[in-house]
């Protein structure tokens, strides 16, 4: 019998499995797809064109990078020269270089006031988010029965908060519930800079720039890098190379990995263990026993799909159903015959243009343009001019495309999972056409350069990749669904009401994407629980 079965071989699932195996537990990962990695995957969209299938990038926690030896397993990080680029339709392009002094000078072309304010904002953001980074690095405390360790961690966080000083402590308290448009507007007057910063609080969420609490997402997603334009890490070979390195580290630690293993049901041993998880049944009928089961699937899919809700109290079933998983992000990948030529970069030579386009490229007609796109989503549609963030990973990693050609990885925001009066199978091509037209408004000739495209809708994210509601964070990353309430108040410490059944995916704290933090914290809690039960 296995000690632990991990359902799902995404980033967090692999991290959890590896740490469990390092602790001496016999661990099996069951992945329903043909490869592990979850949202960290690289796919071929045309012969010779390899593009990040889902996530542009990942930001694996540096401590995990070292402890799992991922560099030894072939992981190579690529750092672009630019954090973000914000082209305009008819004017100059704002380029936020990674070098702070160079970014300040680029901003000065739009606003002298913003050039003065931007370094102060970035420095304050770094100090404020250091407190959130500490919160994200520890388990949420128990609400009903806090332990001594919980109290120690809360005291440590309290000291960090007090060390901020009055101005930054006040900012942290104000910023978290704010609309990200208000936060950006307090520090920036030029529209390209305001929209570029505000965009970081919106990706993947059913919130607009003027929605209360959207600033919290900007702070949480920027906490690890301490920067409002948090890129994550681009990886040589695409995000799939991260999955390969994690899988190699897992196997070295003794983890068994099976792909093509679709878990249909979590088995509950009612009589023997009074409602404890005792293994799984695959869709082909095979049963696999284990002392504990860990799900990397989202909480809704786990508690209401893989588990028969009859094993849960009716009130908990109701609360689980109310976890907000309204996905709003689609992915379109392009194979292009040439590097897109953005209007505002025409004065630069070829190398300069490539450098300026090496980070994230955010296309928006200002904050109000983003809000109009959100308005369409609120009523079950998508805008003819969606808000788009794209990257061109073949600039920094030429091996992803044939010589002189490129792949373009595109997030299309405000594409709601629930469409009114139609469905995504019918609207797939219309969305892709709208996205292509929008990119071409900033980069004339782009449409003619497209050799192939791959369209992944929110419905595809659910059907193919198991993300309930097509939500990339396994549930809205909002103030009421974070920390002690993620995924549910009373169940934020990776356990569930079913004994020996645990959660480790992005639907648990801190829930901030492909960084492995949820998986690492879950592994720590699971090891403590298993050792505690063995001691008894």
Please write out the topology.
Elements: E1 2-7, H1 11-22, E2 27-31, E3 42-46, E4 49-52, H2 62-67, E5 77-78, E6 82-86, E7 94-97, H3 100-108, H4 112-136, H5 148-163, H6 166-175, H7 180-187, H8 191-199, H9 214-222, E8 234-235, H10 240-253, E9 256-259, E10 263-269, H11 270-273, E11 276-282, E12 287-295, H12 299-306, H13 314-321, E13 329-336, H14 350-356, E14 360-363, H15 366-378, E15 387-391, E16 406-413, H16 424-442, H17 446-449, E17 450-456, H18 458-463, E18 501-503, H19 517-535
Structure characteristics:
536 residues, alpha/beta, FAD/NAD(P)-binding domain, Guanine Nucleotide Dissociation Inhibitor, domain 2, 3 domains, 7-stranded mixed beta sheet, 18 strands, 38% helix
> What's the CATH superfamily of the largest domain, by name?
FAD/NAD(P)-binding domain
What spatial form do the alpha-carbon principal axes imply? globular
Rg, rounded, reads: 23 Å
Instruction: Report the strand count.
Output: 18
The parts where pLDDT drops under 50 for at least 5 residues are none
State the helical fraction.
25-40%
Terminus-to-terminus distance: 20 Å
What is the average of the pLDDT values? 94
The CATH topology of the largest domain: FAD/NAD(P)-binding domain
CATH class of the largest domain: Alpha Beta
How much of the sequence is in beta strands?
15-25%
Q: What structural class do helix, strand and pairing data support?
A: alpha/beta
The name of the CATH architecture of the largest domain is 3-Layer(bba) Sandwich
**Major sheet:** 7 strands, mixed
Q: What is the count of distinct domains?
A: 3
Give the count of helical stretches.
Answer: 19
